[in-house]
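Quick one - inputs below.
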Amino acid sequence: MKGQERVFSGVQPSGAQVHIGNYAGALKHFVTLAKHYETIFCIVDLHALTSVDESKELNKYIESLAAAYLAIGLDPKKTIIFRQSDVPEVCELAWYLACEFPLGLLERAHKVKDSRTKNVSINSGVMFYPILMAADILLYRAHKVPVGADQKQHLEMARDVAERFNFRRGDIFPVPEPLIDENSAVITGLDGRKMSKSYDNYIGLFEDSKSVRKKVMRIVTDSKGVEDIKDPDSCNIFQLYKHFSSTDEQQELRQRYLAGGMGYGVAKEEVFKVIEREINPLRQVYNDLIKRPNDLRDVLADGAKRARVIAQATIADVRDAVGVGAKL
Ligand code: TYM
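Output:
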């Protein structure tokens, strides 16, 4: 273990399953990090409440994400896998952090600014979201936080609040370092924008292969003909291909783009093949796990127990530092 440094990250159970953008941008890195660090990965159901209304749906999404964590190869004996709401101390810490954090900074969050520009109303949870996320990270005194580029601003806020808290209240938290892999910081979706549930441009990680193929065939390209020379670097198909292939395979496909004579349909078949090669074995494990909700719940219950030990130690220090909860 690298100097006992702790890695923490979270994923929202906000859809029937995670997509391959979450996988290539974050989840895949979790598995590598688990080999070298103490790791904690959370299913952030409280965050998902900002967008999911149906409690039954939310429970399904949580099970699906638990199965995904296991299917990609995380070992729950080594890694703590747990549901955020099972450790309620996170809400308490979020309050203490909120009392240190200027409202003006929350108002600058992309999502809040976006909603203002588009004149759509948001719930207060959306505004408070970065504080709860900072509480996740700081409650577990994490040193490193692997995320995709879209979480950069949230991580900056978490660092900021940790520094403010430490400065005013004493050294309680490590200042967390974002781990954003530049090669997979933003995975593009079928239309070339960031892959996202809200743009409906995603491929679900465990969708059946027929549906993956159908979606791959929908990837938007320019209108160059078969014989034309094509530019791999501006092509949405090639962008996806990069995350599921070796350097040699990328070189080879790149040459075919540059040589002309290859239609986009052929490139789409190539990307479908490499996605299937990587995902199909995981899909089989996932499909098996999702039929065993009791086993998934056991994993989460055990994870919560272990997470809570860490959380309670931190919260005791924080209460002390802010001056609440002491015997009078
Ligand atoms: P969420 O659930 O939106 O996404 C989970 C992870 O997937 C990454 N990701 C992507 N990476 C590359 N390309 C994409 N198209 C793409 N789409 C999503 C995200 O960056 C993220 O790493 N706020 C977080 C959840 C959270 C959290 C935390 C994360 C709550 N508390 C504490 C880290 C630490 C979120 O909404 O992720």
